[in-house]
């Protein structure tokens, strides 16, 4: 297997890069989730075998592998004879010679004339097909706009007899075929020229049956995150909404070394976490433009936490140009963190924390502080923990926090978490809507230190002090409206006026009487 450089295309995993001693090397037992990768930044194509065409490494923004002729049936293959594999690459069609021509990624290549392929055709289709010694045989097609000069991300999964094809992370074609059981990964230009980059092969598991097309990947895969509601969607601070790793490659990780390396790389990257990963104690830094998503309902992080932000520095009172931004954390279980499970700090912005299960940590489960802003915390299930969520860490930190800490909390299940649900300082507006609170024995929402909170459409069950702007320390301001209080819940203790969230973004408020059932059923992992 050919190694990968740790550069802006972010395909490298540090645990593998440490073993890089030659251009061609093997991974014993292929135990890692990432089987092969090549971004061509070393300037050569060592490890690739070609048939037909004119293949070379060129500079196209970054370096890429180009097949520049259109007069041949051209193929390039690399790697070893894997059985189950997912082959992904960025593909840029350049020119086609004739009708029904395509550029493609290849899986299970037994030779340059025997393989499965997923191609972009000049007939305006995505084509899933096979070669078994003759010309291309079509297994499935879907309509598509194919534009020369445009980059697309193609992913072909071959698991058992099931084949699935994705374009830009959306499943568009599928088929079942048993003709080819194993082989290498590859690229193809069927009488067409194209550039290829960021090749990645993983052992991610396939489905038990073909999906309906088109559809996003099911919960057993690393699915597209969609769009947040709330402050993470706002155009501010030079970032329009929160897109995470969109536009970047996708990698799967199943070890601590792979995870820590991937989250720290520069540039857009989609990181699929498979299984529960035990990380070293402490906080592990997440760089900008990352989507970190758990596969299925049993993936996550234990033993440590994720830090989104630069090192704490009280002397910095304005957002720095290199503040961490545009991060999505989704569908992960966090447990037994030795500090915070998730910490957002130092003017980090545009962060979306969605559909996670968090419990049993040492300090906060989700803390947001030190001038961070434009964050949405949605559809999380927090439980078996006391100090749940801080927004603003200290009554004396106004220099960093005033005018910032704009955060939306919606559809979270605060499940027997005694306090900090959240505890808020300075932020305005802080929007807390359609959450389910049950048996929070100290306080639900604590709004203090001149923070401004809008608390609406929530369901409070057995919460003696559901909302307060006089909980501890300097008082804040809060507006509580349209909430449900049941089973000996108290009344809100609120006063003052607050900026309205709808001056920043639009949202739809659910009937609070339906919130308990909806949030209990839909929050946490395995629900996306």
Q: Mind describing the biggest β-sheet? A: 10 strands, parallel
Structural class: mainly beta
What low-confidence regions span 5 or more consecutive residues with pLDDT below 50?
A: 1-32, 205-220
Q: Classify the fold: give the CATH topology of the largest domain.
A: Pectate Lyase C-like
CATH superfamily descriptor of the largest domain: Single-stranded right-handed beta-helix, Pectin lyase-like
In total, the number of domains comes to 2
Radius of gyration: 25 Å
Shape: elongated
Percent range of helical residues: under 10%
What is the CATH C level class of the largest domain, in words? Mainly Beta
Describe the structure.
The chain is mostly beta strands and 528 residues long. Helix content is 5%, strand content 42%. It folds into two domains: 14-202, Exo-inulinase, domain 1 (Jelly Rolls), CATH 2.60.120; 231-309 and 319-522, Pectate Lyase C-like. A ten-stranded parallel beta sheet has the order 18-19-22-25-28-31-34-37-40-43, covered by helices on one side. The chain is elongated.
């Amino acid at each position: 297997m050919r190694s990968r450089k740790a550069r802006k295309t972010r395909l490298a995993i540090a645990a593998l890069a440490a073993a890089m001693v030659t251009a061609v090397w093997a991974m014993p037992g292929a135990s890692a989730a990432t089987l092969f990768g090549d971004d061509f930044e070393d300037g050569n194509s060592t490890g690739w075998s070609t048939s037909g065409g004119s293949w070379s490494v060129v500079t196209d923004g970054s370096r890429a592998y180009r097949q520049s002729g259109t007069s041949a049936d051209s193929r390039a293959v690399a790697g070893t004879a894997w059985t189950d594999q997912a082959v992904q690459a960025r593909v840029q069609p350049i020119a086609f010679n004739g009708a029904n021509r395509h550029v493609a990624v290849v899986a299970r290549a037994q030779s340059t004339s025997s393989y499965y392929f997923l191609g972009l055709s000049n007939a305006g289709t995505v084509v899933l097909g096979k070669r078994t010694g003759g010309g291309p045989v079509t297994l499935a097609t879907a309509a598509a706009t194919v534009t020369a000069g445009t980059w697309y991300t193609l992913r072909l999964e071959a698991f058992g007899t099931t084949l699935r094809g994705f374009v830009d992370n959306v499943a568009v074609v599928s088929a079942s075929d048993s003709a080819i059981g194993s082989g290498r990964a590859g690229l193809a230009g069927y009488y067409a020229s194209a550039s290829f980059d960021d090749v990645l092969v993983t052992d991610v598991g396939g489905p038990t049956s073909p999906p309906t097309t088109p559809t996003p990947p099911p919960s057993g895969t690393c699915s597209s995150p969609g769009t947040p509601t709330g402050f993470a969607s706002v155009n501010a601070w030079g970032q329009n909404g929160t897109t995470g790793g969109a536009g970047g490659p996708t990698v799967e990780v199943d070890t601590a070394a792979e995870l820590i390396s991937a989250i720290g790389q520069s540039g857009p990257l989609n990181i699929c976490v498979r299984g529960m990963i035990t990380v070293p104690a402490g906080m592990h830094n997440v760089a900008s433009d990352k989507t970190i998503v758990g596969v299925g309902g049993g993936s996550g992080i234990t033993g440590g936490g994720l830090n989104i932000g630069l090192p704490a520095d009280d002397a910095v009172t304005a957002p720095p140009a290199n503040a961490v931004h545009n991060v999505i954390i989704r569908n992960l279980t966090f447990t037994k963190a030795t500090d915070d499970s998730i910490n957002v700090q130092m003017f980090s912005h545009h962060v979306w924390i969605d559909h996670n299960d968090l419990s049993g940590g040492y300090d906060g489960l989700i803390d947001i502080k030190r001038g961070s802003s434009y964050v949405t915390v949605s559809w999380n299930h927090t439980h078996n923990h006391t100090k749940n969520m801080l927004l603003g860490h200290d009554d004396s930190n106004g220099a960093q926090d005033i005018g910032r800490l704009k955060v939306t909390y919606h559809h979270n299940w605060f499940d027997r978490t005694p306090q900090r649900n959240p505890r808020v300082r300075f932020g305005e507006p802080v929007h807390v809507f359609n959450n389910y609170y049950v048996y929070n024995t100290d306080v639900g929402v604590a709004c203090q230190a001149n923070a401004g909170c809008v608390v609406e459409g929530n369901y409070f069950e057995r919460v003696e002090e559901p909302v307060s702007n006089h909980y501890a320390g300097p008082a804040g301001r809060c507006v509580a409206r349209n909430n449900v209080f049941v089973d000996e819940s108290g009344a809100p203790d609120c006063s003052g006026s607050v900026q309205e969230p709808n001056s920043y973004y639009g949202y739809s408020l659910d009937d609070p009487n339906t919130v308990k059932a909806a949030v209990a059923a839909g929050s946490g992992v395995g629900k996306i």
